[in-house]
Amino acid sequence: MKYLCLCIVCFKDKGQATLSLGMDLNLDWMTLDDFQKHLNGDDEILSGPPLSPSELREAVKSGDYMAVKLALNSKEEYNLDQEDSSGMSLSMLAAVGGQDDILRLLIRKGKNGTTALMHAAEKNFLTTVAILLEAGSCVNAQTLSGETALMKACKRGNADVVRLLLEYGADCNIMSKTKTAAMYFAKLGNNLMVCDLIKDHVSMLASVAEDAIRAYFESRLVLLEPVFPLACHRLCEGPDFSLEFGFKSQPQQEGSGILLFIFHANFLNEITARLCGPCSVHAVVLNDKFQLPIFLDSHFIYSFSPAPGINRLFIRLAEAPIAKVKLLICAYRVQLP
Fold first, then answer.
1. Which of 97, 260, 303, 309 has the fewest CB atoms found within 10 Å of its own CB?
2. What is the average pLDDT across 141-154?
3. How far is the C-alpha of 220 from the C-alpha of 263, rounded, in Å?
4. Looking at residue 303, which CATH number applies to its domain?
5. Residue 274 belongs to what domain range?
6. Which domain of life is it from (predicted)?
7. What average pLDDT does the structure give for the chain?
8. Pick the residue with more confidence: 220 or 59?
9. Residue 41, in any domain of the structure
10. Cα pseudo-dihedral 311, 235, 164, 193, rounded to 10
């Protein structure tokens, strides 16, 4: 007979105390291995009659895990992408309700729930957000109004969700249709912790990028000012990156110019970025004109010639759907000493 004792450890000024909740859960019916299989959706496959599409939708909404599992394991073919009259798919409904076990079942059927991520972030469901991100949901996807999951999390002021999205490569500088970024929504909610998270993350990325440039050029290149805010792109989210930015021309001194830098970065225990080694960049196009790398054997640094007004940058990358690496993309006015 196996039991799980529930208790809470409370820390006090003079030590710690353990508070027992006075209850044991009988786990004779489920080993730890069985529980892990349950989390993975690999537990016992039971047979049962299939549900109609409307019954399946109701089972997802009500959180009926077993009914959903039976339906998805049946021979019935369901259109899991179909949306109801309010525009909600099954993954979205599971995310909105915080039904993590059901969401895992849908993910195993190949639905990574990019739009569901928006709903989970907006509802402050941290575990649901984590499941969707690990399943490959696009962290920088935008709604029709241009909002991202990060913007929605900043609206709600949930620092843990914001921190998790940043760790997965959420871009703080993406603009919505109203030309507002994540920091605007954080300030709108008057949440100082979230504002500090966004500010510190942006500052850290800029510092890491600039340090990597100085190390690469052995301090022989002077960085004057950025041309556009640093962008972040997860390589696993697709081989194409695009960006629009405004540019004002200025008189250039002798020995000065503009360079585009594309870093490979990792956000593990600390953020690191490199400008050498294997590279995923295939081509850089600015306003329909190919930009050339400054070194023939490296595709991390490009000559860059923006025009006054609105510019359109396009970067073609390698296909890498399971890659963990992020790309940091920025351009600087530079000066040779």
1. 309
2. 92
3. 19
4. 2.60.120.780
5. 220-335
6. Eukaryota
7. 83
8. 220
9. yes
10. -20
